[in-house]
Amino acid sequence: MSVLENVLDQYSSRVYKNRKEHMVDVNNNENNNQIAANVRTIPGIITQRGCCYAGCKGVVLGPIKDALQIVHGPIGCSYYAWGTRRHKGKTEEGVDNYLQYSFSTDMQEPDIVFGGEKKLKKAIAEAVDLFHPSTIFICSTCPVGLIGDDIHAVAKAAEKEYGIKCIAYSCEGYKGVSQSAGHHIANNQIMRYVIGEGDREIKSKFAVNILGEYNIGGDGWETERILKRIGYEVVSTFTGDSSIEDLKNAHKANLSLVQCHRSINYIAEMIEERYGIPWMKVNFIGVQGTIETLRNIAKYFNDEELTAKTEVVIADEIGLIADDMAYYKSKLKGKTAAIYVGGSRAHHYQFLLHDLGVSTILAGYEFGHRDEYEGREVLPFIKPDADSKNIESITVEPDKEKYHLYLPEEEINKLKEEKLIDYYGGMIKDMANGTYMVDDLNHFETEEFLKRLKPDIFFSGIKDKFVAQKSGILSRQLHSYDYSGPYSGFRGAVNFARDVTMGIYTPAWSFVKAPWKNTPVLEGTLGGE
Amino acid sequence: MSVLENVLDQYSSRVYKNRKEHMVDVNNNENNNQIAANVRTIPGIITQRGCCYAGCKGVVLGPIKDALQIVHGPIGCSYYAWGTRRHKGKTEEGVDNYLQYSFSTDMQEPDIVFGGEKKLKKAIAEAVDLFHPSTIFICSTCPVGLIGDDIHAVAKAAEKEYGIKCIAYSCEGYKGVSQSAGHHIANNQIMRYVIGEGDREIKSKFAVNILGEYNIGGDGWETERILKRIGYEVVSTFTGDSSIEDLKNAHKANLSLVQCHRSINYIAEMIEERYGIPWMKVNFIGVQGTIETLRNIAKYFNDEELTAKTEVVIADEIGLIADDMAYYKSKLKGKTAAIYVGGSRAHHYQFLLHDLGVSTILAGYEFGHRDEYEGREVLPFIKPDADSKNIESITVEPDKEKYHLYLPEEEINKLKEEKLIDYYGGMIKDMANGTYMVDDLNHFETEEFLKRLKPDIFFSGIKDKFVAQKSGILSRQLHSYDYSGPYSGFRGAVNFARDVTMGIYTPAWSFVKAPWKNTPVLEGTLGGE
Amino acid sequence: MLDYTKKEKYDRTALRVNPAKTCQPVGAMYAALGVHECMPHSHGSQGCCAFHRMFLTRHFKDPAMASTSSFTEGASVFGGGSNLKTAAKNIFDIYNPKIIAVHTTCLSETIGDDLNAFIQDIDIPEGKYMVHTNTPSYKGSHITGFSNMVASFISYLSVSSGNKNGKAVLMPGFVNPGDMRELKRLATALGVSYTMLPDTSGVLDSPMTGKFEMYPKGGTTVEEIIALGNSELTLAFGKFASEAGAETLKKKCGVPYNLLPIPIGISRTDEYIIALQAFSKTEVPYDIEEERGQLVDILIDIHPYTYNKKVAIFGDPDTVLGITEFVLEMGMIPKYVLTGTPGDAFVSAAEALFTKFGVDGCIAKAGGDLYELHQWIKEDGIDLIIGGTHGKHIARAEDIPFIRAGFPIIDRYIHSYMPLVGYKGGMRLAEMITNALMDRQDRDALEEDFEMVM
Amino acid sequence: MLDYTKKEKYDRTALRVNPAKTCQPVGAMYAALGVHECMPHSHGSQGCCAFHRMFLTRHFKDPAMASTSSFTEGASVFGGGSNLKTAAKNIFDIYNPKIIAVHTTCLSETIGDDLNAFIQDIDIPEGKYMVHTNTPSYKGSHITGFSNMVASFISYLSVSSGNKNGKAVLMPGFVNPGDMRELKRLATALGVSYTMLPDTSGVLDSPMTGKFEMYPKGGTTVEEIIALGNSELTLAFGKFASEAGAETLKKKCGVPYNLLPIPIGISRTDEYIIALQAFSKTEVPYDIEEERGQLVDILIDIHPYTYNKKVAIFGDPDTVLGITEFVLEMGMIPKYVLTGTPGDAFVSAAEALFTKFGVDGCIAKAGGDLYELHQWIKEDGIDLIIGGTHGKHIARAEDIPFIRAGFPIIDRYIHSYMPLVGYKGGMRLAEMITNALMDRQDRDALEEDFEMVM
């Protein structure tokens, strides 16, 4: 029996049928590697998934530092999103930074019974009094939708009353099947109310947006450092270390770079539709990944000097890390890894691991869709279900004033055909035969796969980190980087390599088994006989 | 039976006879309050006394910050004197400060067998190489005297070779009967080799030396602050926060103020003999004590403006502390204290306690002589014994060039008759009838007196602090101030009052007895019957 | 750091800024983890379960296993009954717990799911159990949720057979495994036979063995919970976290209870010892008396460093009250005492302590937040902050020494193994406090005031 | 701070600057305090006794009672025989100890006092004892003095009657009372019946009772020391502090010994547990295995904060070697390892550890001083200093985190109650180390890098 069968076989028939669809024995199946994704987790299954609120407020909105974000609901949801996600943001002159604060309406029973709008309005008034923000976000949590608070009306009224921007997000936790719904909701509102409003002067024609980069552990800063070194102007980052002002100007770039496809592809597409700016799937994780990405971007901008500078920077950066990378590779070569995380990283990190001689034998996403697994070519074949239909999809029209093309249309079409832009191929194409791709990997499967595949490292999140480690397998968090980072770009690759190496070589692993477990009690001649 | 008899009665007859002479029931004895002091402690008795080395290197020399002090002997003696006595010293531009260092020849067995001079010479050479000091002191410990190392010859040779000042102190621990012998030895050498060498310009005629002030916890700084505020110039302090350069100029003052009579009276007298400068016993401990001292000094200098300024400063300083002192007095009034410490403080602190409404019911010195107890009037009647004869006494002659009188001779004689200068009356005159004065109070007696007299506070040192506290009596160290201070002058009085108050009112005292000690076990009706 | 916090007083009634509490379900989850072979189950959106597991894991650095009903929009409209039914089947099938402990969420509470009815409708396998508690996130705090879960275990399971078993029930309240171990050690030392509920020791401080155990050795067994009904007496620690459980056991099975404060500090530990002694009628063993005497000795020795030092304490109500009394025993002034959990009993208990120790000018507040605490500190400074991780920004902004005690501590390690309760816990807390204050003294000392001996 | 210390290498052969040791007698005094109803007696100038009592009191914050022969110049010339005779009479008269334990000083050693002869000449009361050891201050260090005193107790008192008593002898070495308690707890847990010599627990960590006891409850009794001769086996901790005692007992009474390292860290505690197990033939109880597993779990959890961090460790040789092995187990690099006590065995043991864990570029030195340690640190920096109080100036001068472990700690409190040995001691040490490193990370973090979760 195959490993997959072994794992699945322990399920009841209903669960078996469901979970079977989420597992792929790569290139070793009759199903053309098709996978079920972005569908409901079965109740009772110990999933690692979060909710819509987490995807909206936690992932996409959280990093926007100058928006005062009021979570409308009972206290927990705001509390958990307070300072824990490591989307770093620098305090800059003239830009507010509320990242150290948690704002909530802390709804109480009467608010649930009689409605919470009044309290929300008062909370906004108090926030304006105390903080004088230029932007307020309102994020609703589960009960808000059910009791029918109209947060959008409240937001509109607040805009009028205080002369500020106020955007509401109906991101109740029960929407969709994972964080993914929340990304979409956040994308929609930012597209509606933010992008396109700015009129900042762009100095370089090599102007890019970085989309789906939340600056976890400073990743965005490393990416930006490299791009700036080559000569790019970063117009906006969605949304790591970003301000509303940055986001407002996204329509002025000439290319959108998409790092995390899942969380931001809606905006990437809509920006193109409305403003004519194509997007390119990039990957700044891994040395080779970064290099390839840099070359692709240069190819798009198609400028001799830029292309030359790109190579100079690549060569220089590689020179600076080559010794370290070689050292760490010597320590890690031949190790195996399993990765279960997010909606893009489970793919990206395979490149970095490959740089270090580590092979990935199992990978899966927590909230990816089929396109993150199989590539965007499957998009036409994905059937919307009840859960996905509930999430609003908006359509946008070209903006007559602001629509602009950096390349002539035929050039763009050519690049599209080459899949250089507007395309993402998904994880499957980079996975070796006989490895495993598992969607929404749950606790039971984690335990079983770890037992059976015995990877040297399990990359995951805090909830299953210690499950792996209790069973003697190093686990590193790829959501939070275990509070290290950055892991992106050139310097980040070294950080990552160092962190994994130290985990593998930590002497304490050798003490897991008590020595008396090996020796019989009655050995020896000394003692009080 | 009196308390004294009660305590003494438990001794064997030999010890009884010896110790009886060290105890005085004040003004309630047939002996005119005569006390035995500065005599040997009986072997086996748990005394708190230290040794000659401690008095010389630890007390008098230690605070001189720019003398690199090499302890010649096995390691312990230097180690214990390292940073532990709290003679504070500021680092000043142009003056070395070695207070954070411990220097020793760390003698080893071969050095004992074959002599340690060679190692001492080498140590000096290394010290010169590494530290470039302008002055080196050499202090010998027990074995050095016995094996006959000639540290004075080594010192002379070093002076010549390195062009620095190098002074040797033969302060072996076994000399004399307590630290007192060490004070004398240090006094002699400083008089011989330091005082009188300076030619610093003195700007004010109100120029004083402060003698016997070691700046424990910053006492000297507070004293100096007050004196400077009035208009005095402090030429030198012996030896708190002092430099060799300061001490060299002591002969230029017009009055020596003696705080700790025991440790420095030799120098006070010799300075007068050689340079004509009288000395005045002062006391900067206690508010009233400080005020009286300031008025006495003004009286000596006999200058209208200075006298007026003295009163202005006194009034101002009192104003600043009056509320605090009144508060603490309200908390401490009626408490009783026992004091056993040093050679002057057991007297001085009675004034400060009196300021706070605390009466002293037992006091004694660790290394005082009869004059500290009974006043200098007993000096002619003190018979030298074998131990005191072993300590060199030096005599000095008037220095023809540097001898100077601030007051006409008849004025000086008048002040002497008034006992304003050149006089110390000792502790006895300030003790109430029926209180106790005990010399070299040992552990056994401490325990017994504490049991019988039940003072609220026992002021002592680290060795018996916890003996008192274990028996439920607050103990504060008056050697180290328990790492607090300053306690001198006006501000110091408040610090002291605060520290004592917090000790008395510390809630933990109320928990000494476990509550179940009061309740029978079988009380109550609940439980597993 | 926290640049927008201004000292000027401002009355907020709607906006919560930097809370000092979280919501009920996480407390229920923690309590359920203290039952052996129990699967805590979150009846709501799967995000709740994810957040709570994440949060507990960050504090304990150990797996916090729990399942969820994974509500979708449909369930939110039509009710979560079928989700729970499916969940129960799958949980028993896949994870094979002895018992499932369901807690609700603001979602299932708002739609009015009737958990009693749902559970009665579920086909629970022979020998297995399923219980629930209501934990609406919009009432109380995580402490309330903990308290509710404990009470529900009892009301579902405990039975009085009429035969007393000679045991005491220890309800430790919302404390760390290290505290629970210490409470048990003291009970054993006093010869008291007990059942502790809940008991997360051995669960959330479990050893590395090279093998992951879904249900580690620790936790109260279901059999023990059932037998609670035959106990002699409950010793319930902390009004906020344990009174409901004790009251439930009293009402249901007639077991009387003694509501004790969490035994942090000397007096409170004395109270516990005396209660144990009253139960077992045993002499207090010398070892325990020695520990106590050592702690008293220490407090007297360190008083120059603690006396009159002003401290802000925040966190969970029972714990904060314990730390407050202990710092008062140390001669410190608990200038600001704050919990995010609502409840007037907190304020009156704190004020009773201020009166008992005769300290003036201290403020106690329940239902407060860290923004307000920070405002107070800006208005009138203090020497030390004691609380969970979330105080670290204030400590940095105001440059005040900070020690981590209570829940949650998500930026340090090892704390959960170590007790704050008992005389031993007092020594630990005293050391942390004294070191923090002395380290600061050393840091701020002028070079000439830098002390070798202290 | 320490402005005159320069990084340039300089070979000193005569000048000791800022020592990392003190002299023998204080060690002998400490050992003697670990015998019940024993009066340690310093045969020399009274300053020695005063310094040693002061020094021990500063570390333990508890009375350290001892008497002195109070040499004067006369005694130094004519010998201290009559001083000792007088002292003995007075001590037995006034303080009524069961035993007087005399140690010499550089003074009495230099003049060649024959203590054996003196003691034979003394009229010791019925049922009382008097022993001595030679502790010339110009050889070895306080550790040597400790070791000598332990050996002398045995050579004076222990007798083999021919009937084995089934006990192990535990010689803990120069450690704190808290360590001794932990060593005993582990022995008891493994079912080993033992006598510990010396045992300062209950003496130098005695409780506040409201009554001073000259001889507190703790300490090895004379009867127990006599009966050591009937023991089965000695477990001697630390070559420097305990080998002499173990060897003496072997030679005198034929008791074999097992020389163990002081059990700081996992491997060394394992070694102790296995030795106990070999003695008692008992299964290791689950509680102990659990503690061990918890410590392993902790070390794995904290490794990102400790791995490859460079540390300087100084202090007493056996303790420093223990801490060195433990930091290696934590993945740290013990860059500088220094003791003031002379002895090549220290260097070879340290280097064996460097080899075992495969670390390069580390320096070990015996007979060194803190001036040299500081020079090394200036030459090539480190992340942490571990040692006694005397390291604080270096830590401040170089702005390096500093944790206090070992002897002496004269500027902090409570440490002596807490173990460094055993798995529990490992947790404490791991917490201290991790907190120090994490506090520094927090302190130095840019505002945008200041982490809520770590």
From TrEMBL, chains A, B:
Gene3D superfamilies tied to this protein: Nitrogenase MoFe cofactor biosynthesis protein NifE, C-terminal, Nitrogenase molybdenum iron protein domain
UniProtKB keywords: ATP-binding, Iron, Iron-sulfur, Metal-binding, Molybdenum, Nitrogen fixation, Nucleotide-binding, Oxidoreductase
Enzyme class per UniProt: oxidoreductase
InterPro entries: Nase/OxRdtase_comp1, Nase_comp1_asu, Nase_comp1_CS, Nase_Mo-Fe_asu
EC number: 1.18.6.1
Reactions it catalyzes: N2 + 8 reduced [2Fe-2S]-[ferredoxin] + 16 ATP + 16 H2O = H2 + 8 oxidized [2Fe-2S]-[ferredoxin] + 2 NH4(+) + 16 ADP + 16 phosphate + 6 H(+)
Record carries keyword Mitochondrion: no
Taxonomic superkingdom: Bacteria
Signal peptide: none
GO molecular function: ATP binding; iron-sulfur cluster binding; metal ion binding; nitrogenase activity
GO cellular component: molybdenum-iron nitrogenase complex
Cofactor(s) in the UniProt record: [8Fe-7S] cluster; [7Fe-Mo-9S-C-homocitryl] cluster
Keyword ATP-binding appears in the UniProt entry: yes
Family matches, as NCBIfam families: N2-ase-Ialpha (TIGR01862), nifD (TIGR01282)
Record family assignment: Belongs to the NifD/NifK/NifE/NifN family.
Function statement: This molybdenum-iron protein is part of the nitrogenase complex that catalyzes the key enzymatic reactions in nitrogen fixation.
The name this protein goes by in its record: Nitrogenase protein alpha chain
Organism in which the protein naturally occurs: Anaerocolumna cellulosilytica
From TrEMBL, chains C, D:
GO molecular function: nitrogenase activity
Record keyword Lipid metabolism present: no
Coiled-coil features, chain-numbered ranges: none
Lineage top rank: taxon: Bacteria
InterPro entries: ChlB/BchB/BchZ, Nase/OxRdtase_comp1, Nase_comp1_CS
Pfam families: Oxidored_nitro
Keyword terms of this UniProt record: Nitrogen fixation
Entry-linked PROSITE patterns: NITROGENASE_1_1 (PS00699), NITROGENASE_1_2 (PS00090)
Gene3D superfamilies documented for this protein: Nitrogenase molybdenum iron protein domain (3.40.50.1980), Nitrogenase Molybdenum-iron Protein, subunit B, domain 4 (1.20.89.10)
Family named by the database record: Belongs to the NifD/NifK/NifE/NifN family.
Identification of the protein by name: Nitrogenase molybdenum-iron protein subunit beta
Organism, scientific name: Anaerocolumna cellulosilytica
